[in-house]
Design goal:
Layout lengths: L12 E7 L5 H9 L17 E7 L3 E7 L7 H14 L5 E7 L6 H12 L4 E6 L16 E3 L8 H12 L18 E5 L13 H12 L3 E5 L4 H7 L6 E4 L4 H7 L6 E3 H8 L3 H9 L7 E7 L11 H13 L3 E7 L13 E4 L7 H13 L4 E3 H8 L3 H5 L5
Parallel strand pairs: 1-3, 1-4, 4-5, 5-6, 7-8, 7-9, 9-10, 11-12, 11-13, 13-14
Antiparallel strand pairs: 2-3
Length: about 400
């Protein structure tokens, strides 16, 4: 059972192992992780789908290891596997290009290296089976190259050190909220507990935000929307910030005085993932939809749909009521996101708490490249309630 203190997958460094079939990816992953994480076989194509495993990998820390099918897989089924492998590239922070040292690099190997460069993914070339002799010479440009062996363990420690070095970001991560707070501040968090709320726990953005408030040496007051007015009255003064579930924006905005900063968990997640500017522009498009609009509603997680599910029930209803147009909707969840979003007039995404920053940035840029506006639940709901300017005002100190 996962602990409540486990690092969420979205906050782990995503490390993808790529290469052709039988290059030794699975054996190398097992050597790097010290676990029988991947199935090893002499049969080409044993790995049929990307396999993900969250774990601690020193010195990198909490990571998500991704073992991918061979990029040279063949046939109709093989092509589908290759598409899934290429899809993984949109979320990896570090790539390991696994190359069989006993044979010349395949065209697929060099194509992968070019893809990593094109997508600005830092990568290391791991030459496997180096215990069997000297590797074939090849110019891998500026990428570090590590000779490894899953048999005698050579190069495994060096590879782990190289991965950790590549995983370091040049720019510091944008916190969820702690950089907007000072020690001693009081933050009120409004967390509705209704039929669509998960049983026995808070949702991940709420948990993460509470932790971030505490990291700032500030105090978190957590209430349901029905107890918000009473909680505000009980404070010695106005709180530094009120953060609400976006679904309760209209109610909460009517209770919180205009001079008290107000935003939502979803909007904070947009800022945290680096997509705020693009999603702000997208929110404005809700008021400019064509007469027959087609909207994609996408969520980064998969969960049991409740009768008042926000993605498939509430958002479509609110958008249809707000838009002066006839709106049709499509829905995706989890790792599914269309390669072609051009048929849509707008993409409305969840906060993305289950997706890492690189994946969220890719989705936003992917939509922008096809000329499709992109926003998220919190910004869309704020726009439809006429409080968007107020909801984003607290995000700059």
């Amino acid at each position: 059972m996962a602990s409540l203190n486990d690092v969420p997958s979205a906050d782990r460094v995503h490390i993808g192992f790529f290469g052709v079939r039988n290059a030794g990816k699975s054996s190398l992953i097992n050597a790097v992780t010290g676990q029988d994480l991947a199935v090893v076989s002499d049969v080409a194509g044993t790995t049929t789908d990307p396999v993900r495993k969250a774990m601690e990998l020193l010195p990198a820390g909490p990571v998500l290891i991704i073992d991918t099918p061979g990029i040279d897989d063949e046939g109709t089924l093989g092509e589908a596997r290759v598409r899934k492998t290429r899809r993984v590239l949109n979320s990896v922070d570090v790539a390991v290009l696994v190359v069989d040292a006993t044979r010349p690099p395949a065209a697929a190997d060099t194509d992968l290296a070019a893809l990593f460069v094109d997508k600005r993914i830092p990568y290391v070339v791991a030459l496997t089976k180096s215990d069997l002799g000297e590797a074939f010479a090849h110019d891998w440009g500026e990428a570090p190259v590590v000779a490894t062996s899953s048999v005698d363990g050579r190069g495994v420690h060096e590879l782990k050190e190289t991965i950790a070095h590549l995983a370091k970001k040049d720019e510091p991560e944008i916190p969820i909220v702690r950089d907007l707070l000072s020690p001693g501040d009081v933050v009120v968090l409004v967390t509705p507990i209704d039929e669509s709320a998960p049983k026995g726990r808070l949702i991940l953005p709420q948990q993460q935000t509470i932790r971030d408030v505490l990291e700032a040496d500030a105090s978190a007051v957590v209430v349901k929307e029905t107890g918000l007015a009473q909680a505000l009255d009980a404070l010695d003064g106005p709180p530094r910030l009120v953060i609400t579930d976006s679904q309760a924006f209209a109610l909460v905005a009517g209770i919180v005085p205009d001079d008290v900063p107000l935003t939502s968990f979803s909007i904070l997640m947009s800022r945290h993932k680096g997509t705020l500017d693009a999603q702000l522009d997208g929110a404005a498009e809700l008021g400019r939809l064509p007469k027959q609009a087609h909207i994609l509603i996408s969520e980064g997680c998969t969960h049991h749909r409740q009768c008042e599910d926000i993605g498939t029930v509430k958002m479509p209803r609110w958008i249809a009521d707000y838009a002066n147009s006839e709106v049709s909707f499509d829905f995706t969840s989890g790792g599914d996101f269309p390669d072609d979003v051009s048929p849509y007039d707008l993409v409305v995404h969840c906060g993305g708490c289950m997706l890492n920053e690189r994946e969220m940035l890719w989705r936003a840029r992917h939509a922008a490249a096809q000329g499709v506006p992109f926003t998220n639940y919190g910004l869309a709901i704020a726009q439809m309630n006429g409080i968007l300017e107020r909801a984003v005002a607290p995000l700059s100190r």
